[in-house]
Amino acid sequence: MKIEDIRRNAFAMPVHSPSYPRPPFRFLQREYFIVSYETDPDALRAVVPEPLTPDGNLVHYEFIRMPDSSGFGNYTESGQVIPVVDAEGRKGSYTHAMYLDDEGPIAGGREIWGFPKKLGSPRLSIDGHDTLLGTLDYGSQRIATGTMGFKFRPLDLASEQKALADTPNYLLKVIPHVDGSARICELVRFHLRDVTVHGAWQGPGALELHAHALAPVADLPVRRVVGAKHLIADLTLDIGEVAFDYLAPAEAPKLVVNQ
Question: What is the pLDDT at residue 259?
Answer without folding.
Answer: 43
